[in-house]
């Protein structure tokens, strides 16, 4: 271990209590992005973050407007052209706190009980933002020059909890400013406190609304049943045909672009503690279901899926009404994996409908929402530096996982700025994020600061 | 033509204007059974009908209570034990009149314009009730004895427009009083004014709600999609399997009790003007659908069907929500033909579910509503007398049809009193029943009175 790194780690350990005080200060600002009455607090919170960056000697610190709450930007580009540039992502906004009566302590007065700090945003993700800030502080206060061994840029947004609605446009507009070798995003958490985790892939999404039309008005099922193709039945037939008996999706060309996953990656996935038993417990389903050649964890990460999200047709109230409905609707979405893209999947869906929809009905497919697939090369400079940093602290190789869902900023950064994200973090599944009594496990948080310090030095060396 | 019959017909022709005045009087009573504010009018209307029966010399005239609006009963049993007994059915209640602004004339001031009487209930079915009353009047005023050539009983209810909810219990309780050789029910109308029509069969109904349960709570489709059997998809698969490729129903044993329909009956059905083109026009569907070995008219009358009446699962609002729903619901009903019965069909549905529902989901089938099949022997005394009566007036053999739906009273009379119904009537498809500007075609109505007179004499001779 280099001397500089050692000094930074010691600084971090010695200042842990003050770091916690500053985290409490950060938690005390009710930066609830969804509440118009907290707009002033959100603004104040952005100022607080900007001041932190300034106090660390970051340059070009700005509170930059978006269509909604502002983004805090800052940078330190003094490590030279050959050193990598890291974009550090965070969000300073938080979830609402209701129902307030279920909180044991004031959500804005960070209270320490046993190993935890309780308060809204303590884990999601003010604690994570402070971890990255304090790792940088530990380095700049001990490096002698006040500089980091790498170039850094900060992108700390204020709308993550409301869908990062304006962030895509912001990134598109400021793509050059945000250009980096990779982004480190500590909003993804760990599997458990003994399992440092790197999430290197997110699935994409193609969301459709399919409508099937039969008769031009609702019919009496007694007078007309048996003469026309019931649109609810026709829709059921079309949906039933979208999977084969093994749970594989039958849309023409659906799997064509799916990148083959190697043995090594599947072995990493097999190391994850998300066993079939885990999925049974989490879902409460009578049994698991899906492609038999893949484990449940593989089915939610490296395999694309097609799910019915909603069904509506005819009479759905209490009791009975003998209507033969004029139309039926399904919301259907596909989770996508590398190298599928939503536009092509839309075409696959239309092809399927053209091939299978009978001439006894009319139909339309609306493409409601698209989100690209995001994946980071596992042997990239960012992943290697972070994985090593985690291993240096926990004494074990991190778990590598892909996440089944999408995260807006990750996709937007990849799409508009060409920046891949390394997702990690020190939040735990039991942290009550978005719920009352949100908490942060302080020993894990401390290790997180150390892991960040190590990552920076791993990159710089 | 016998002398007595001739005299009755002449009486009817001579008194047609007065009959119309009395119909106007009947129409003027706003006996809207669904409106509590019209409860007094409904009662007054029952009185009016009872007075009509009394004025015709009927015996044992009573306004009999039910759980809701009363039934008017009366009888004349003077034709002797060997003469048949006819139960004459009618209802004195009417539909609401809103939207009132769409009426050209006051719905309760019967106004004659060209060949029509306009007013609420003129066709459905005060006009039909008056036709039966005035046929009887024409006979009793001209027969010399004041008696009819047959025994008659009257069952005129006040809740038909609200589903005859209390009539089943009433019939069960008074089965002996209502005992008759057959019931004549003029509430079924004609195919067109040149096509006198007898409806001799009604389909039964077995109505189910099927619920499919998957995970024990709604899941995030990104985090769990692909690991459990989506209940909306599983339901779609089950529904899709309920018909084969030819539109035949696959529930085990479903067709077992279906009575074979002979060539003669199918030839009668082929005479009906309800061509495939008619069904295309009435439904507005892109194409017809159903069992290829049967015509559309046969598919709605002599064939049982299974229709999806409703579908509900997950997110069905505007836009997209990536939920993997915990449950899905379908309302499904079967129209039944002789000799199917709803209880057996319920068992067929449960058998189907047991056979095809996978162990990856849970399910339940609720039997929401049952209605038996009603059919009248076509060579019965009642059908023969009515068919001949219609032919005597129109100069052509009536069309014989089965109706695709159910009519409560017909099923209840068959079930609880063992009385089969001959369904006919002089309402036309364009009469705007249940709509503004309801009207009665007066020339057809006059022929209807004549047909009733003929029927009574045909029975008596």
Tell me about this structure.
Two copies of one chain form a homodimer. In chain A, helix 5 (167-173) runs parallel beside helix 14. Chain A has helices at residues 3-14, 16-27, 39-55, 126-140, 167-173, 175-178, 221-224, 231-240, 263-271, 276-283, 296-299, 342-356, 381-394, 408-417, 442-460; strands at 59-64, 71-76, 85-91, 111-113, 116-118, 151-157, 182-185, 197-202, 204-213, 219-220, 305-314, 323-324, 327-336, 362-371, 374-375, 399-403, 421-423, 439-441. A six-stranded mixed beta sheet of chain A has the order 1-2-6-3-7-17, with helices on both faces. Chain A has a four-stranded antiparallel beta sheet with strand order 11-13-9-14. A three-stranded antiparallel beta sheet of chain A has the order 4-5-18. Chain A is built from 15 helices and 18 strands. With 461 residues, chain A is α+β, with helices and mostly antiparallel strands. Helices cover 35% and strands 21% of the residues of chain A. Chains A and B meet through strand 9, strand 10, helix 7, helix 8 and helix 10 of A and strand 9, strand 10, helix 7, helix 8 and helix 10 of B. Strand 11 of chain A pairs antiparallel with strand 11 (305-314) of chain B.
């Amino acid at each position: 271990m280099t001397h500089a790194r050692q000094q930074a780690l010691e600084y971090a350990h010695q200042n842990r209590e003050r770091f916690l005080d500053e985290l409490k200060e950060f938690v005390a600002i009710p930066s609830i992005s969804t509440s118009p009455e907290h707009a002033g607090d959100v603004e104040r919170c952005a100022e607080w973050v900007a001041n932190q960056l300034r106090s660390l000697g970051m340059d070009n610190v700005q509170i930059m407007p978006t269509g909604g709450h502002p983004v805090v930007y800052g940078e330190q580009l003094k490590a030279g052209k050959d050193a990598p540039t890291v974009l550090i992502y965070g969000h300073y906004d938080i979830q609402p706190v209701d129902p307030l009566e279920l909180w044991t302590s004031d959500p804005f007065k960070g209270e320490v009980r046993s190993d935890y700090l309780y308060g809204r945003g303590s884990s999601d993700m003010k604690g994570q933002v402070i971890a990255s800030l304090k790792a940088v502080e530990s380095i700049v206060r001990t490096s002698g020059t006040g500089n980091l061994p790498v170039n850094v840029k900060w992108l700390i947004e204020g709308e993550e909890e409301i869908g990062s609605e304006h962030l895509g446009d912001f990134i598109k507009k400021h793509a050059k400013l945000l250009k980096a070798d990779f982004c480190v995003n500590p909003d993804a958490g760990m599997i458990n406190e003994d399992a440092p985790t790197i999430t290197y892939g997110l699935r994409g999404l193609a969301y459709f609304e399919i409508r099937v039309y039969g008769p031009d008005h609702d019919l009496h099922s007694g007078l007309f049943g048996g003469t026309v193709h019931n649109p609810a039945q026709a829709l059921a037939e079309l949906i039933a045909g979208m999977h084969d008996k093994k749970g594989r999706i039958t849309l023409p060309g659906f799997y064509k672009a799916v990148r083959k996953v190697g043995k090594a990656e599947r072995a990493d996935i097999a190391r994850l503690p998300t066993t079939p038993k885990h999925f049974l417990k989490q879902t409460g389903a009578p049994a698991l279901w899906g492609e038999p050649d893949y484990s449940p964890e593989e089915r939610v990460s490296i395999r694309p899926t097609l799910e019915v999200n909603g069904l509506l047709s005819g009479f759905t109230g209490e009791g009975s009404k003998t209507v033969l409905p004029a139309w039926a609707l399904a919301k259907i979405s596909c989770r996508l994996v590398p190298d599928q893209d939503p536009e092509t999947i839309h075409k696959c869906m239309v092809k399927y409908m053209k091939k299978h929809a009978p001439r006894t009905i009319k139909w339309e497919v609306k493409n409601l929402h698209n989100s690209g697939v995001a994946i980071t090369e596992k042997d990239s400079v960012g992943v290697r530096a972070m994985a090593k940093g985690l291993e240096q602290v926990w004494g074990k190789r991190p778990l590598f996982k892909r996440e089944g869902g999408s995260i807006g900023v990750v996709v937007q950064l990849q799409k508009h700025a060409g920046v891949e994200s390394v997702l990690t973090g020190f939040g735990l599944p039991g942290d009550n994020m978005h719920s009352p009594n949100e908490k942060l496990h302080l020993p894990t948080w401390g290790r997180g600061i150390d892991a960040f310090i190590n990552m920076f030095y791993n990159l710089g060396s």
